Amino acid sequence: MNWTEISVHVSREAQEAVSHLLQEMGADGVAIEDPEVLHRAWDSRYGEIVELNPDDYPSEGVIIRAYLSELELIDADGFCERVRKELNWLRELGLDPGPAEVTHRLVAEESWADEWKKYYRTVRVSDRLTIKPQWEDYTPSSPEEQVIELDPGMAFGTGTHPTTLLCLQMLEKHVRPGMRVIDVGCGSGVLSVAAAKLGAGRVLALDLDPLAVEKSRENVGLNRVEDAVVVRQGDLLRGVGETADLVVANILEEIIRKMAYDLPRVLVPGGWFIASGIIAEKAETVREALSDQGLRVMETVHQDGWVAITAKKW
Q1: pLDDT score of 155
Q2: Would residue 68 count as lying in a domain?
Q3: How many domains does the chain have?
Q4: What number of other Cβ atoms are within 10 A of residue 295's Cβ?
Q5: Of 2, 8, 169, 249, which cross-links 184 as Cys (Cβ 3.0–4.6 Å)?
Q6: How many whole angstroms separate alpha carbon 276 and alpha carbon 253?
Q7: Is the pTM of this model over 0.90?
Q8: DSSP string covering 58-119, please?
């Protein structure tokens, strides 16, 4: 069976929204080509992750490639036109989609299945955490190094996007043995697995997308942390009756603001909230939303135009 590849060239600011849009429209997978990885200053202690070809990346913004089977998508031109209309709608909402170029082509199944894997290699992300794809061999350098083994699938990130890296670094800093952690919008489950491997006693991984729930459960099993991590479908923190020592959310800025009112209810006194997925220009709106709910912002870290915020409930 062949697949139709839909390529959408957008701004980095619109990356998360457009990726979600394409999946809502029926895409069986999404791959993101972000030129930021060509210039990322990885810590020299950990080295380069892979030799990348600049010709594979756009000069500005990102290219999101979505895949639909030829049986599901008969009218590719019509699908592209629908995407363009949605991009115009994002612009009206104040989210700049950038170039907003939409094209399509037919690809063979074997190309679709393997093309995205060339962008994904083992990477040491911090002193204690390393992310590796399931299909690669890797030997930890010390007993303290925790290896997170992932099969992210086409629809999820590889764990090396700046927003995820910032969350992982903050988790390493704040997770203590036995902590209760909630991961809101768990995606591939990488943050939940990391929290468990850092010593969390219980992790509740939540995502509204059934596909994310399925993929997170697979990766939890792959890393043998089923005793610590529970994955279930959920809409942010709505309906969560338990409390947590730490809540982490790597989601869009506007979604973080919407869930902020639930944080005081869920977090114990002295509990931590780690938020990422925030572009630098909108960081202040998140800080204000957290302050309005009585949380004190303790740290703000930046990487490549993205921001992670750590706040504490007193």
Answers
A1: 46
A2: yes
A3: 2
A4: 23
A5: 249
A6: 8
A7: no
A8: -SSSEEEEEEEETTT-S-HHHHHHHHHHHHHHHHHTT---TT-EEEEEEEEHHHHHHGGGGG
